[in-house]
Amino acid sequence: ATPTSIMVGTGRGAEMGVLLRKGDALQRLDEARVVAFDKTGTLTEGRPRLTGVTLAGDWNEDDMLRLVAAVEGQSEHPIARAIEAAAHEHGLDLPQPEGFRAISGFGLGARVDDHDLLIGAARLMEREGIDTGAFVERATEMGARGETPVFAAIDGQLAAILAVADPVKDTSRKVIDRLHAQGLQTAMITGDSHATAKAIAGQLGIDHVESEVLPDGKVAALRALRERHGTVAFVGDGINDAPALADADIGIALGSGTDVAIEAADIVLISGDLAGVVNAIGLSRATMRNIR
Ligand code: ADP
Ligand code: MG
């Protein structure tokens, strides 16, 4: 690679909001065969809303929501903001939880008002021996719509299933189409359920889906994609994406993302617009053609 063409490419990148943090980023991007995306906040808006509640046992919606939202108040996950907002809309005063624990990749637990709460994915309920049979169909329906099913158990019994919807960004479908037109394969990596992930990937036309990936499993998922399909670029925004951004052949962070993600990346899309991925690949090809 001639220094001059790299300099020109870097300058052109800056003009289009593609910040190259590593000197060989364009060269490696030119070799990419697959572009893998984080789901939440990267392909989706990352601002989920509570769209439905189904109750079990004798719980009424506000009593259940008050306890669940009190626990979610301690969580950093986008799902927590959706549930807190719903409790706020219902005008609920939230009690203080005790013994809060975040169960990474599964959900949350705490004691609230003398009740034991467990909130999270189906796999959390399975792990804790809570029977979810009554809600299997509801969870399947939610998943098919691309919604995340959130199970809530109170005192060891299923109390509710909440549907949380995080719409895909307006730009996502077009970006996936354009990557395919550029001859690349696409993939999505997420901790969300298989059904939800499959529905979102289907909406977007994504080729490969790695779902129910535990937080420390993103790197392994990425390596599996690399082994099967070749050089991988990974696009992400969150703190939990930093290891994958660093491990990917090319890490691309959204400028709207967290500082930790940006620092782990080779390329930063300043405006946070996903179309920057397509522009960066176009730029890498133009630059490498000049070099050869
Ligand atoms: P992702 O970033 O893809 O959502 P996570 O590892 O953060 O992956 O979460 C995996 C799954 O664990 C979520 O899809 C959700 O089902 C469950 N979960 C995590 N945090 C929470 C929370 N605060 N409330 C409810 N469910 C949660
Ligand atoms: Mg994310």
UniProtKB/TrEMBL annotation:
<comment type="similarity">
    <text>Belongs to the cation transport ATPase (P-type) (TC 3.A.3) family. Type IB subfamily.</text>
</comment>
<protein>
    <submittedName>
        <fullName>Copper-transporting P-type ATPase</fullName>
    </submittedName>
</protein>
